[in-house]
Write a structure and sequence with these properties.
Elements lengths: L4 E5 H16 L4 E5 L7 H9 L4 E4 L2 H9 L5 E4 L8 H7 L2 E4 L2 H13 L4 E6 L14 H9 L4 E7 L12 H18 L5 E3 L6 H4 L10 E4 L1 H5 L1 E2 L4 E2 L8 E13 L24 E6 L11 E3 L5 E5 L4 E4 L10 E6 L1 H9 L4 E5 L12
Parallel strand pairs: 1-18, 2-3, 2-9, 3-4, 4-5, 5-6, 6-7, 7-8
Antiparallel strand pairs: 1-12, 10-11, 12-13, 12-17, 13-16, 14-17, 15-16
Organism: Maritalea myrionectae
Protein name: Alanine racemase N-terminal domain-containing protein
Cofactor: pyridoxal 5'-phosphate
Length: about 375
């Protein structure tokens, strides 16, 4: 078989999506399925739709265009602020986009007018993570100005937490978002239908005790893909954590010293790591590296193997008591960073299948 390859179990992904859709629906929260890690792959997109997810969300207009061309039927949401240079493409392919700048909304309005359509907007609010967002004190004026644009429909507000500075979604910031939604409803004498609380990092809050206020949407990617929450990377009850397996081929296996010899400078990717002197070790070299994935996010499924490091094109393992013949394959689980890099690499073959019984188990409820 071709290596390196990413083995992708769509049945486990569908299961994860179905479980999360049901659990969140019980709390009055809908799910937008984030397709960006999968580069908008139509097989993945249709898997999410078949699991009961109503809308798809992506950060790249190119991914949304590819899903449209493939005939994927569903509401499409651009979840990174649109580039001015892509306004016409955004309006043509996406039903909704997340915005923070009046200049960009003006460009979307003009593009929607030229295309004789209406484009939906969610205004993103800054609640502490310091990525995108309108300051809360500026929100009322931003809503007023947005409502004045022709061919623009203001669907509501949203926020994003945990991605930049790790700010935890909790009762305080979710309560603040709910209060802002109530305030603009009262000020403008209408009910804006969407209050989007954030991403997979919101799940501990969303599935916990307590009222959820006005929050009625989450944008989920990592939890569906990897079966964990991003704040502490802990498995989520009832979900598969092994829908993805990365497989690489052994191209060298030799006994070598455990420490380098000579004067040490920087490696190809920064400062060298110090190695403990444990005498000669059996070292395997695999045909995969930084050009293909994030090696720091890989964990050998065979737990006696240990990742020692990586360069652009090589991954180095301490095989300990295991034999790794030339041409054999080693399987790895991945974190989110390793997954998105592997998906983006043209050198990693993507192999989709439907076989949830192949390996792994559901996290205990």
């Amino acid at each position: 078989m071709t290596a390196p390859r990413l083995e992708i179990d769509l049945s486990k992904i569908r299961h994860n999506a179905q479980v999360l859709v049901k659990k969140l629906a019980d709390r009055g929260i809908g799910v937008s399925g984030v397709t960006k890690a999968m580069l908008g792959n139509p097989l993945f997109a249709n898997t999410l739709l078949s699991a009961g997810i109503r809308g798809l969300a992506d950060s790249r207009v190119e991914d949304i265009e590819n899903m449209r061309k493939a005939g994927v039927d569903g509401q499409m949401e651009l979840i990174r602020s649109p580039m001015l240079s892509q306004a016409a493409r955004v309006v043509k392919s996406a039903n909704i986009s997340l915005n923070t700048e009046l200049e960009t909304i003006a460009a979307l309005s003009a593009a929607a007018g030229a295309q004789n359509c209406v484009h939906g907007i969610l205004l993103m609010v800054e609640l502490g993570d310091l990525r995108e967002g309108i300051m809360p004190s500026d929100l009322e004026d931003m809503v007023r100005r947005t409502l004045a644009f022709p061919n623009i429909r203001l669907d509501g507000i949203g926020t994003n937490l945990a991605c930049q500075n790790g700010v935890v979604p909790d009762a305080r910031n979710m309560g603040e978002l709910s209060a802002l939604a109530d305030a603009i409803d009262a000020t403008f004498d209408r009910t804006f239908p969407v209050v989007s609380g954030g991403n997979s990092a919101n799940l501990n809050w969303a599935l916990g005790e307590g009222k959820k206020g006005r929050i009625n949407n989450l944008r989920l990617g990592e939890a569906i893909l990897l079966g964990c929450e991003p704040l502490h990377r802990q498995p989520l009850d009832g979900l598969y954590a092994d829908a993805f397996v990365l497989v690489a081929e052994v191209i060298e296996c030799k006994t070598k010293p455990s420490q380098p010899t000579g004067t040490i400078g920087q490696t190809a990717f920064g400062a060298a790591k110090s190695a403990a002197n444990s005498g000669p070790i059996r070292q395997a070299l695999l045909a995969i590296g930084h050009a293909d994935t994030d090696p720091t996010g890989l964990a050998p499924i065979h737990q006696s193997l240990k990742v020692l490091g990586a360069s652009s094109d090589h991954l180095i393992l301490d095989t300990q008591d295991q034999t790794c013949p030339i041409g054999s394959e080693v399987a790895f689980s991945l974190n989110y960073s390793a997954l998105i890099h592997a998906m983006a690499s043209p050198f990693v073959t993507k192999q989709y299948h439907q076989n949830s019984a192949s390996r792994g188990s559901i996290a205990a409820a």
